[in-house]
Amino acid sequence: MDYKSYIAEKINIEGFTLDQIKNMLSVPPNREMGDYALPCFAFAKALRKSPAIIAQDLAAVIPSDGVIESVSALSGYLNFKVSRKGVAGGVLSEIYEKGASYGSSDEGAGKVICIDYSSINIAKPFHIGHLLTTVLGGALYRTFNFLGYKAVGINHLGDWGTQFGKLISAYKRWGDKEAIENGRVRELMKIYVKFHEEAEKDPSLEDEARGYFKKIEEGDAECLALFNWFRDLTLIDVEKIYKMLNVKFDSYAGESFYNDKMQPVIDALEEKGLLTESEGAKVVNLEDYNMPPCLILKADGATLYATRDLAAAFYRKNHYDFYKCLYVVAYQQNLHFKQLFKVLELMDAPFAGDMEHVAYGMVSLPGGAMSTRKGNVVFLEDVIATCIEKSLALIEEKNAALENKEEVARMVGTAAVIFGALSASKIKDIVFDINKVTNFDGETGPYVQYTAARCNSVLDKAGAYEPTFTAEVTDAEYEVCDVLSKFPEIVRSSAEKREPFFITRYAVDLAQAYNKFYFECKILDAEPAVRAFRLTLTQATKTVLTTALGLLGIEVPAKM
Ligand code: ARG
Questions:
Q1: What is the pLDDT of residue 124?
Q2: I need a surface site. Which of 22, 121, 270, 512 has the fewest CB within 10 A?
Q3: Mutational pocket test of ligand 1: of 314, 329, 339, the residue with most ligand atoms within 8 Å of the beta carbon
């Protein structure tokens, strides 16, 4: 039930549209006053009356009905109380009917959304910095699908560039095949770091590396085989992480995939007269738009990151015919995407306006900065493992008798990581504190899981009951129903604003409302009709918490 629309329809004021009135409706800070309030100040001019009088006049003519219980005027505000019985009955029966699909819709039917996310770099560690793009993209992917869109997850692998020449040079000098097979990225990192140390003393190593990279480009069998080997080894490591975080991709077409797809784009740029020469390189001049030039070809003819992204944009449009193409990439690349989208616009690509950079902030550990070249990085795999260990310790402490503790700890530890990363607006820089995100009593993933498991255990103890949707509703019960009723709107705005954080915040709100109810109201010992209503409420809460966590990629253990 959309209460704001319902209320807005009752109010007719010349010069104000239904939507405007709807947007003016707010939720009063104090529930005593009402469930919705309409400030009447903006109407004073049109009606030539004081806001206080306007509110009084409106209150006198709006009748109460099964939805609106009462209307009152207070200092220029029109306050509405909705029928609590009506709210509770409406939302609980809807959740009962729809189950896991409550909150979903088909509004995106027929529309494809490409989501470029995670997009890790080959032979480089999957570190804490990649966490956000991976879980943000994963959450958006699931949320768009939930709303009926067809999401296409694309991992635009960073699998091209001179660093592969360096790796080949390093491998040939100091590599141990078996150690690398076993250690994968960690071993590759070691020789990569060694390469940089040695190259400081002997700069000719850089030339050697450039030579090897050229050989990869020319398709030299040995170099290409090594390059593919590095790629495969990296993917073994990252896929383990994707499995833990419950993310998946429909395509792993990365930078190297576009090796043979850039010429048409370069030709088109040339034809449109967009390419200019600058010190031998070819660039698109963006001075008119207050941006540095976008580099398309280096003096030696080599292509660049932007060239590959241009080719990728056209490829994606042709291949998927997207409605929107999102890039979930850190704000450090703001300029790159502004340039990219501008160049597409200058090329008259009809889809230029459908490209969107979903920028996010930095994630760091309390320790501080890191660098791949120097080797002081913290692997995400280790961060997840630590969260799982911590969760296991907490479970031992709180519920030592729990069955399959290891499995539960895995679910709880990964929930801590995902939920922790998504606990603030995406654009904020965050410090990822393992102690905070794993705290069962904080505003964390484990706390929400714990609440869902609590619902489960209540329902388990209760056994069979008759689903019951109406009752006299206490404040605590009403609060839960009110939060439950907001879920569809939260899902929609989380997709629209590309903000999975709305869902984490919502899940905490719902868990808190339920826990307050749980401590204030007896459930199992209440008289039969009330007991049945409270169990129905508990079931609805479990359903919605499970769906909300599911959208984030988090599983709910039956017991905790
Ligand atoms: N591999 C890049 C990086 O780690 C991110 C790629 C983002 N996607 C894109 N199409 N440019 O910085």
A1: 86
A2: 270
A3: 329
Classified as helix, coil or strand, 362 is: coil
Q: For ligand 1, atom 4, which residue shows the shortest CA distance?
A: 120
**Contact (CB, 8 A) for 133 and 117:** yes
> From ligand 1's centre to the CA of 130, what distance in Å?
10
Atom of ligand 1 nearest to the CA of 254: 10
- State the distance from the centre of ligand 1 to the C-alpha of 118, rounded, in angstroms: 8
CA 362/CA 121 separation, integer angstroms: 17
Question: DSSP character for 43?
Answer: G
Residues 25 and 5: their CA atoms lie apart, in Å, by 9
pLDDT in tens, 302-341: 899 999 999 999 999 999 999 999 999 999 999 999 999 9
Residue 13 neighbours by CB under 8 Å, 6+ apart: 21, 43, 46, 47
Q: For domain 3-82, which architecture applies?
A: 2-Layer Sandwich (3.30)
Residue nearest to atom 1 of ligand 1 (CA): 158
Q: Which residues face 79 on adjacent strands?
A: 37, 72
Nearest to 540 by CA among 91, 20, 198: 91
- Is the whole model's pTM more than 0.70, yes or no? yes
AA letter at 45: K
User: Which residues does a 6 A CB cutoff place in the pocket of ligand 1?
Assistant: 116, 119, 121, 156, 158, 309, 312, 327, 329
For 4, 212, 293, 294, 335, the CA distances from 288, given in Å and listed in that order, are 45, 39, 10, 13, 15
Q: For residue 444, give the 3-state DSSP assignment.
A: coil
Mutate to test the pocket of ligand 1, among 114, 116, 119, 238 (most ligand atoms within 8 A of CB): 119
Give residue-wise pLDDT tens across range 168-193.
Answer: 999 999 999 999 999 999 999 999 99
pLDDT (0 to 100) of residue 370 = 55
How close is the Cα of 329 to the center of ligand 1, in Å? 7
CB 446 within 8 A of CB 388: no
Residues of the chain with CATH 3.30.1360.70: 3-82
